[in-house]
Backbone:
């Protein structure tokens, strides 16, 4: 069930919801139309053995770039998931240097020290639109070229093509996250630039064809998700700022 974009809903029954087909993001329409066009050409030439696979490919492309509406929590303590997918890794790490060091603009970066990193693996079947985990101003947007190894590997955080994003709230809270290309993903597409103001859950970019997103929680904050959990961008609460609590789960 989804709601109209911008509509306020709550847990007391306010708001209306109905099912609808998810729209296709404009970034993907050209690829889907191109595949469909090739399929029609093959069909016109009576090359059915090629026409049908291209037709199914066009449907797959349209499905990959689907962009459903999400009902975004408005609790100021909540850090929401920036990506659909599987929580593949949770580890204590130092934030990337690109999010820490002085970038020459006078804007402060993340402080040094161990924080919790949540890694979200997106398969080709997941929605690939990425969303802002908190509201605030885009302080840094750092693109780094790199390899295209399996995004599920831990070292992909340091070696793959990636883009770091640092958001700062009005109260000074900062949160960094990283879009990481994978084996199939070959382009990270940003929808925002430095200085933009974003709302929690707002679309900030996408990664084409399978990838990963790492989130660096603020110090003193533990995840509210577990390894192996399936999460939804803009809806699943990854953590609550300042909350530290062991959370155990059972796969069944």
Residues:
């Amino acid at each position: 069930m989804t709601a109209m974009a911008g509509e306020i809903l709550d847990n007391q029954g306010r708001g209306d919801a109905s099912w609808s087909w998810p729209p296709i993001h404009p970034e993907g329409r050209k690829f889907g139309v191109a595949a469909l066009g090739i399929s029609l050409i093959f069909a016109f030439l009576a090359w059915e053995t090629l026409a049908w696979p291209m037709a199914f490919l066009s449907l797959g492309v349209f499905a990959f770039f689907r962009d459903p509406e999400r009902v975004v929590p408005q609790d100021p303590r909540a850090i929401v998931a920036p990506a659909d997918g599987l929580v593949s890794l949770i580890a204590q790490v130092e934030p990337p240097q690109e999010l820490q060091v002085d970038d020459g603009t006078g804007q402060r970066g993340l402080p040094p020290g161990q924080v919790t990193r949540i890694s979200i693996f997106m398969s080709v079947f997941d929605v690939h639109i990425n969303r802002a985990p908190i509201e605030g101003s885009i302080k840094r947007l750092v693109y780094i070229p790199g390899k295209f190894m399996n995004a599920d590997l831990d070292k992909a955080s340091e070696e793959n093509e990636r883009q770091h994003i640092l958001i700062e709230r009005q109260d000074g809270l900062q949160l960094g996250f990283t879009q990481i290309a994978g084996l199939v993903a070959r382009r990270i597409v940003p929808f925002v630039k430095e200085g933009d103001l974003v709302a929690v859950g707002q679309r900030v970019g996408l990664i084409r064809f399978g990838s990963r997103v790492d989130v660096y929680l603020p110090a003193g904050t533990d995840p509210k998700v577990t390894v192996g959990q399936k999460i939804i961008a803009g809806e699943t609460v990854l953590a609550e700022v300042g909350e530290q609590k062991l959370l155990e789960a059972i796969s069944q």
